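User: Here's a protein and a ligand (nicotinamide-adenine-dinucleotide). What would the complex look like?
Assistant: Let me lay out the input and then the predicted complex.
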Amino acid sequence: MNRRDFIQAGTASGLLLLKPKTVFGSEANSAVRLGLLGCGNRGTAVATSFSKSTTAQVVALADIFSDKLAAGKAHFDEVNSALGRAPIDNKLLFHGPHAFEQLAASPDVDLIQISTPPFFHVQHLGAAVAAGKHVYCEKPTGIDVAQTRQALEIAKSVKPSQSVDVGFQCRSAPPIAAVAARIQSGALGKIAAISANYNAPASTEKTRAGESADEYRLRNWLWDRALSGDILVEQNIHIIDLCNWMLGAHPIKASATGGRNILTHAGDCWDNYQVDFTYPNGVHLSFSSTQFGDYGGFDAGLKIFGSLGMATVPYSGPVQIVGSNAWAWRDSTKTAAGSGTFAANGAFSDNLEFADRDKERSFIESIVSGPKHNQIASGVETALSCMLGRMAGLTGREVTWEELLAHGESYSLGMNLEQFA
Ligand SMILES: NC(=O)c1ccc[n+]([C@@H]2O[C@H](COP(=O)([O-])OP(=O)(O)OC[C@H]3O[C@@H](n4cnc5c(N)ncnc54)[C@H](O)[C@@H]3O)[C@@H](O)[C@H]2O)c1
């Protein structure tokens, strides 16, 4: 078994050992105390996975809505009980619009996992970093250019003792990490172009008796451009992040089309985009996405074409390189491309089966043993790349990276969160 095969086998089988060091003065390999901010679908899945795959222990919960907090408490008390851990102390449950500040102020929490809707990520990241916490923050790092500027300021204030990750777990999926390493070391020769897509089912409506229009909007944030950033910035970002990462660059301009051709429900997010991104050296990424209905057409992935070969990187189906440096991920013939099951909570199977687990382990390793992470600037670069495509689509003309930074769209929440106190 050569070194690369050993690393592949080690990551896929969970052979990642934490070195004994201290976390905020606690003993070697003792629990990293995790506070979950946003007890929804994704937040619950990731914090559960942290609990099961790492030494992190969920000790605190925060959410704007008390019903979500109560559901989180019931769930994590069960998870903790199964792991022989104490239930969550009631004094570490925070709800309302200031819950994020109360969680950040808690001395009983080492790590804050931010799983709130995208509009709040940068504000919540700022509070958590200022309080000296380690942070795992979901993508996107901002929904408009102004938020990304704030995020970059926050990045500068991260102390050497803090670790901050952004939720691009696809980079940690063993088959994707393996093919990316080959592409980055030149296996495809000169890159000519990329073709990529993200075709997903619609998000489902959430309703509660007697709710206000604002509460409905907040619970259905995925339909709302200001709250989510639209499908390019919120969902398709995973694929665009992989393109940036594999090319080692961000797009310098984009032109795009798209619209809201199928959806008729509340909100203003588009249900399809077609974007032509231009990267340095004239490399074009032809990207298309849809998000509506649900007839089993889920398919996400990319194909990179180079002078020496082509790499195929789908969520489901063979991850491989054909051409001069032919290679295939050893397990990836078990599903056909486009046959995967969509997971609204991001906990996908197939090629992404170990993505969350391995990302979480590497993050906890960075906290316990170092070196510390600071992924904010990289998260911003990918978020801006998606905003470039969104702005090109919404304006109907080519937009450059410089124009985006100077004149990018800005969004406001348009509601007073104090009503949820
Ligand atoms: N990495 C992935 O694969 C992946 C997958 C799904 C979702 N996500 C991201 O995770 C985040 C959460 O998505 P979700 O699907 O769990 O949504 P969700 O609606 O299920 O959960 C969001 C939670 O945040 C709470 N919340 C809303 N506003 C808040 C505020 N201001 N303060 C405190 N709590 C607030 C809500 O009450 C809810 O419990 C989003 O940023 C989304 O983009 C990532």
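Summary: The chain has 14 helices and 15 strands.
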